[in-house]
Design a protein that fits this description.
Universal stress protein, 6 helices, 5 strands, alpha/beta
């Protein structure tokens, strides 16, 4: 079974492209398992990961495609949480969303996506913003 960690943020700006990349995999319904992960920076109200709209959207679309799913919620530093979960679950690939940045922003490190790319010990697929 091919294991994917699908990292979903609250706004889901690149979610459709991430999901397209999963559902377009050969034999996805038979050979792929996706853990949908959301990292809460702060969660004083104790919200559950399944209360996040973009997580529900991902669950619905993957289930409609017949792809096996599970969910994981973390809190704290997003990069640390994503990398820890990827290791714990021994995923084959981390799928994460990207954001458009202005030219000066590209020179700065610090975004979650950049940190995951630079520190992951496994492949990272970065999906761009939805059209």
């Amino acid at each position: 079974m091919y294991e994917i960690l699908l990292c979903v943020d609250a706004d889901g700006a690149s979610l459709d492209r991430q999901l397209d990349a999963v559902t377009d995999l050969p034999s996805a319904a038979d050979d792929v398992h996706v853990t949908i992960c959301h990292v809460f920076g702060e969660n004083p109200s104790g919200a559950s990961v399944t209360q996040v709209g973009s997580v529900r959207r991902a669950l619905d679309r993957l289930e409609d495609a017949g792809i096996e799913t599970s969910v994981a919620e973390e809190s704290g530093d997003p990069t640390d949480a994503i990398l820890r979960l990827a290791t714990e679950r021994d995923v084959d690939t981390i799928y994460i969303g990207g954001r458009k940045r202005n030219p000066s922003g590209k020179a700065l490190f610090g975004s979650v996506t950049q940190s995951v790319i630079l520190n992951a010990e496994r492949p990272v697929l970065v999906a761009g913003l939805n059209d």
